[in-house]
Each structure stands twice: as structure tokens, then as C-alpha cells.
Design brief:
Order of helices and strands: HHEEEHHHHHH
Number of strands: 3
Radius of gyration: 18 Å
Shape: globular
Distance between the termini: 70 Å
Structural class: mainly alpha
Number of helices: 8
Amino acid sequence: EHKSAKIPYGDILQISLLTAMRISEITRIEWTDLDHKNKTVIIRDRKDPNDKIGNDWENPLLGGSYEIIMKQKKYPEQPELIFPYNPRSVTAGWKELEKKLNISNLHYHGLRREAASRLAKMGLPINIIARITGHKNINILHNIYAQIDIKEFGKKGYAKYLKEDIS
């Protein structure tokens, strides 16, 4: 009956992929941080090398993330939190799944990289992706997270280049 035994892993996984948020950020979101009208959420005290406290960011709830949030039930022990779970419990469950599926070297934090890569493949500019992921230094985002298949990009870029009038 304990809530940690009923962690909605699928929902949290989808939120991670749709928002590029860290698991510690997801498990701190309060219902009052949700802007229903604009489909955004405040990420309180977002990780930053310089300012750990008061570093609040407003992020869009992309894809179906708003709908996923709205279907979460409130737990009496922590009714203010949307995902009232210990981030360590979520990552421990992820590791168990990894073992059951016989997958190695797949870390939960890798979902941020995947989310950033998906945003890049959608054609969003790197500065917008950085804003969504919380990176103040675009170079870090570019070097670590933006993993684009250069061959695939080359094919599309080459075709687009040929269509351009080079005068």
C-alpha cells in the first residue's frame, strides 16, 4: 500500500522524455507550480553550478506532458507534490528494469540527452533547447546532449542546399 510501491514509472519516463527535466526536478513539482492556461510548469531551484537556491525556471509542458500530469492522483502524505516519490526510488526502479531486460549502461539521466536530441531533431534552435533543458552554457548542451546523426543530417542538408539558389 505504500506509494513507493506504486510509482507510475511509465508516466515519469514520458515526462522525462517530453520535458528534459531531471528526476529530482520532476519529483519536486508542486500543483501550485502548474500554469494550466499556458501549459507551463515552474522548476524550483533548478540545478546550476552557481545558484542552487532561487534558480527557478518556467518550462513548457510539451507533447502530452500536461495530460500526464493531470491524471496523477494526490497522496494524503504529500498532497502538494505532483510526483511525490523519492528520486532515488525512481532510479532504483529504473535499474531493476534494466536488469530484467538485460540492458547494460543505460542510465536514467540519459533520458535528458534523448529529450534534447529529440528537440534538436524537431528543428528547435539550440538556444531554445538550452532554455528548456536549463543549460545557461549553450556549449555544454551542444557538446554533450545534442547528438544528431551526422549522416542523416547530411542527406537532408545536402538536398536542402541543392534547392537553395546560390547566387
